[in-house]
Amino acid sequence: MFEGRDEMSLNDFFGTLEPERFADGNSYLIGAFANVGAVETGDGLVLFDIGSEMAGERIFHDLRAITKAPIHTIVLSHGHFDHCFGHRPFLAEIAEKGWQAPDVIAHQLLPARFEKYNMLDRYHNWINGMQFSSVLFARRKNPVSTEHILVPTRLVREGESCEFQVGGRGFVVRAERGETDDAIWTWDPSTKTVFAGDLFISSFPNVGNPYKVQRYPKHWATALGHMLEKGPDFLVPGHGRLISGAGRVREALSVTARALDFVHDEVVKRLNEGMWFEDIYHEVLAAYPDEFKRSPWLQPIYGCPEYAVHASYRLYHGWYDSGNPTDVHPPRRADVSRELLDLLGDGGVERLLARAEALLAAGSIDVAMALVDHVLLGAMPGEGGQTTALERAILLKVKLVRKRSTAEPSMISRNIYQNYVNELNIRKKSIRK
Ligand SMILES: [Zn+2]
CB 3.0 to 4.6 Å from 177: which of 219, 300, 336, 377, for a disulfide? Predict the structure, then answer.
């Protein structure tokens, strides 16, 4: 489905990239999981993000190999863990040298995000541990800590732009919504550079992330439009390599904005036609244009159009999304599956699993998975042959999920599949006990 996939690898996205100098020779991109932008002025450095806590030392080392200038200002593009928790080595240096503390510019809603993180710290560790299970956190108990935050000294209200000057150079920050409700991007007019934060991530945008709260596809497209209006020559994304050249930057921003608008507007059109989620989801994906599938800027290696349909629907609709009142006060699915297995009777479970195997062979993996689920949910270990049937169902589901995962370009989806396989393997061991 996604023909340009090879052009953008996961390492480009989450890469620890060699620092890159660009534009006037005083601008840098330092890539360490998330990117840090830096501009050296006569009065010190302006940094755009400060990375994750775990990448802080590396970022510090990379930056100090380039310049010893003190930090004048830090702009935080949003409050996610990978963009604004890498400051500790920098603060230690400031304390050691007796330098003045930097100005810290952020969106007005960023402090509320940090308060939320404090309230939900264990929960966030849990969901981030699942979302990033293949790349991070495997041995870390607390991947995100809000114990030591960089406190903003200047807040910018949503929709507002404000200018700041460092060393005779002006920069403009603009507060918008997109991946988060606390997004800021920065315009450096002297080099025509946009520092985008995660409003641009070198993948289909991370909108509709399955683990995370509401994100804002329409506002996001609008923010990209505001970047386009500046006519940038350079784009420093939140993740991925520097994008250089007015034509390439324009194409990257424009195709991403159009894809976000497309998914959002197609969902809205179908909401207005009185459609329910399942039909909207499949119809919008069937209509998703080849132009977007081919674009190297929209490869679904992290976010994907499927997630974007969810995000757009969830903006305007509540949780009752099927049109089937069974779902208003739903029974436990295990109770329904148990009834079904009882009805199938002797040999019925075997027939069901055999049918799922046949569907797998025919390439109908999603339907096969749904069939096997009845056995996983409804079989009672210890009853008749159901222990054996349950073990067979687990093996088959593992096979199905692994097969499904190999066709899946999104790292988040693949991690969901792999985490589930790990859980099933634990369950399998516990059955005979
Ligand atoms: Zn990020």
Answer: 219
Cα(80) to centroid(ligand 1), Å: 7
Q: Per-residue pLDDT for 132 more than 90?
A: no
Token reading at 76: 């935080």
Nearest to 224 by CA among 272, 257, 191: 257
Within 8 A by CB and 6+ apart from 358, the residues are none
Long-range contacts of 389-393 (CB under 8 A, 24+ apart): 389/349, 389/350, 389/353, 390/431, 391/428, 391/431, 392/353, 393/353
Class level of CATH domain 5-262: alpha beta
Does the domain formed by 331-431 have CATH 1.25.40.880?
yes
User: 413 CA to middle of ligand 1, Å?
Assistant: 17
In CATH terms, are 5-262 and 331-431 the same topology? no
Question: What are the pLDDT digits (tens) for 265-305?
Answer: 999 999 999 999 999 999 999 999 999 999 999 999 999 99
Q: What's residue 326's pLDDT?
A: 97
Residues with CB under 5 A from ligand 1 (ion): 34, 82, 198, 238
